[in-house]
Amino acid sequence: MWIRPAQSADLDAVEIIERQQFSNPWNREYFAAELGNRLAHFHVAAAAPAGEIAAYLLFWRLGGELELHKIAVRRDRQRRGMGESLLKHFLDMGRSWGCERAVLEVRESNAAAIRLYEKHHFRLVGRRKDYYCRPSEDARVYEFDFRGAAPGS
Ligand SMILES: CC(C)(COP(=O)(O)OP(=O)(O)OC[C@H]1O[C@@H](n2cnc3c(N)ncnc32)[C@H](O)[C@@H]1OP(=O)(O)O)[C@@H](O)C(=O)NCCC(=O)NCCS
After folding, report:
1. Where are the alpha helices (DSSP H) in 45-110?
2. Whole-number mean pLDDT of the chain?
3. Which residues of 94-105 are buried (b: 16+ CB within 10 A; e: fewer)?
4. How many angstroms separate the alpha carbon of residue 115 from the centre of ligand 1?
5. How much is the pLDDT for 152?
6. Does the model's pTM come out above 0.85?
7. Ligand 1 binding pocket includes 71 (Cβ within 6 Å)
């Protein structure tokens, strides 16, 4: 899988995946703003170097903490290891920067993402009541502790 920083030319593909995968999608302007946000790391992924964008990852680096905001794979490319590769890429970057922890929120009903995070040793640390809308739903809050994690996890 090929992962590279996102560019404005990628926004059409990102927007299509976002609308397909989220019931309350971010709009294009939000993603465009992230391209110029110095805290943000926005990456896209394809199966081949010049291939179609099949997935993306967006997170913020705030000192020693990473906040995962988006990880998504196009529906017809799911269950082929792309989400896992992107999550490993995210954790590898945090490790290389000497980060202490990574945090994320996920819908209570999002079994696929929850399985992915738990497989990679994210720990449930809390819940936020009615955090999401359309539909209204609680969030689970997960944390990854880089200091406590075994190498390669
Ligand atoms: C979550 C998501 C990124 C996973 O991407 P993916 O490429 O399909 O996942 P992978 O093939 O890399 O699977 C890795 C692991 O994730 C978990 N997983 C992925 N899809 C799953 C599903 N449908 N049901 C249960 N577990 C699933 C499993 O633990 C899997 O490991 P395994 O194959 O050893 O069981 C993808 O389902 C997606 O884009 N979902 C919509 C967007 C989203 O909800 N993002 C997270 C927001 S917090």
Report:
1. 82-96
2. 96
3. beeeebebbbbb
4. 7
5. 60
6. yes
7. yes
Report the percentage of the chain scoring pLDDT > 90.
Answer: 95
CATH of domain 2-145: 3.40.630.30
Chain position carrying tokens 């905001």: 69
Of the chain, the end-to-end C-alpha distance in Å amounts to 19
Name the residue at shortest CA distance from atom 44 of ligand 1. 113
- Please give the pLDDT value at position 18: 98
Q: Is 72 in the pocket of ligand 1 (CB under 6 A)?
A: yes
Domain boundaries, the chain: 2-145
78 lines ligand 1 (CB under 6 A): yes
pLDDT at residue number 122: 98
Residue 14 has pLDDT above 70, yes or no: yes
Distance between Cα 110 and ligand 1 center (Å)? 9
If one residue of 115, 118, 119 were mutated to test the ligand 1 pocket, choosing by the most ligand atoms within 8 A of its CB, it would be 115
- Give residue 113 CA to ligand 1 midpoint distance, Å: 5
Among 103, 78, 61, CA closest to 17: 78
What are the pLDDT digits (tens) for 68-107? 999 999 999 999 999 999 999 999 999 999 999 999 999 9
Two tokens, residue 40: 């943000």
